[in-house]
Amino acid sequence: MMFLVLEIQSTQHLDDCSQLSAWVNVSNQQDALLTLSEELSTQGWAITNIVECTKTLQDDYFPPCKSLDAFNEACEHHLALRFAAV
User: CA 67 from chain center: how many Å?
Assistant: First the structure.
């Protein structure tokens, strides 16, 4: 599982930016970025900066925790996204 923090920008409204936390159920950064690029482009977003990219395990989280919820969601659905306004 890869955990990434990204800065993203709307492809439709160039002044609309956000920060994104993503959990992607793949084993490396290249596959994670490919998966995210494809998913985000369908939602009208483009990656502008990679803030963090690291492998993560379920043991990295302590319940109850929203990040653990996202990790488990990605285990089940391959991907979990959490947007935050910048």
Answer: 11
